[in-house]
């Protein structure tokens, strides 16, 4: 699920 | 960031560097599936479209640029630069049988019905099966060069390490992404028989020879 509305993984 | 994800990303980086070095040094793409490399280029292109819209960190952005750039260089090496050494007769996996179902699934099962999110989901699902043409080619040719085996081991290890990363993040950050976890499990499971062969054979100096 997005952290703060974005994907933070590669 | 945690150690599992960092080692996983480094393993992924290493896999890509091993592959490029193998091609450049041996001036040959023998034994490499161009279809898998095309799928990886699609995976990175559809996953990193947020490259310009959302900034996470210098590390994140630079790795995305590196992965996209090297995936296109790899495809160029196979289909242009070292084309005479590309073994298309053994690279016959029907990738449309992967792309269509994965595309449909991404459309139906995703976190948010928006273009960027559906493409991200498509990329996650596609990555989990993108290695199949390569594994299929190794089984067809009946063997793999040891350098190709090292490439596959590093590539398979990266997502296995991401599974540990997701366990870590679940317990320490309350982060959980079911789509990425399920696809990551499928992706890692597909490498299992290769991992077994790699550990029992390649590490003893033998070559991998799958039953053709």
TrEMBL record, chain B:
Keywords: Endoplasmic reticulum, ER-Golgi transport, Membrane, Protein transport, Receptor, Transmembrane, Transmembrane helix, Transport
Signal peptide range: none
PROSITE patterns assigned: ER_LUMEN_RECEPTOR_1, ER_LUMEN_RECEPTOR_2
Transmembrane intervals: 6-24, 36-59, 65-82, 94-113, 119-138, 174-199
InterPro entries, alphabetized: ER_ret_rcpt
Organism: Dreissena polymorpha (Zebra mussel)
One GO location term (cellular component): endoplasmic reticulum membrane
Name assigned to this protein: ER lumen protein-retaining receptor
Xref: Pfam families: ER_lumen_recept (PF00810)
Highest taxon, organism lineage: Eukaryota
Compartments reported by the entry: Endoplasmic reticulum membrane
Lineage: Eukaryota, Metazoa, Spiralia, Lophotrochozoa, Mollusca
Coiled coil: none
UniProt key word tRNA-binding: no
GO biological process: protein retention in ER lumen; protein transport; vesicle-mediated transport
Broad class of the protein's primary localization: endoplasmic reticulum
């Amino acid at each position: 699920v997005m952290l703060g509305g974005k994907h933070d993984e590669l | 960031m945690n150690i599992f994800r960092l080692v996983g990303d480094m393993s992924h980086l290493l896999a890509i560097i091993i592959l490029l070095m193998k091609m450049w040094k041996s001036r040959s793409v023998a034994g490499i599936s161009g279809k898998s490399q095309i799928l990886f280029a699609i995976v990175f292109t559809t996953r990193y479209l947020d490259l310009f819209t959302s900034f996470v960190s210098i590390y994140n952005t630079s790795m995305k640029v590196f992965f996209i750039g090297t995936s296109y260089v790899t495809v160029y090496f196979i289909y242009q630069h070292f084309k005479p050494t590309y073994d298309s007769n053994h690279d016959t996996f029907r990738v449309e049988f992967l792309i269509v179902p994965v595309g449909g699934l991404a459309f139906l099962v995703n976190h948010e019905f928006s273009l960027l999110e559906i493409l991200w989901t498509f990329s996650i699902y596609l990555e989990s099966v993108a290695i199949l043409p390569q594994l299929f080619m190794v089984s067809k040719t009946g063997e793999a060069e040891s350098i190709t085996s090292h490439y596959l081991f590093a590539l398979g290890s990266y997502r296995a390490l991401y599974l540990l990363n997701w366990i870590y993040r679940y317990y320490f950050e309350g982060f959980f992404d079911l789509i990425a976890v399920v696809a990551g499990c499928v992706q890692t499971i597909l490498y299992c028989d290769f991992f077994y062969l790699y550990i029992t054979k390649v590490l003893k100096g033998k070559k991998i020879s799958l039953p053709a």
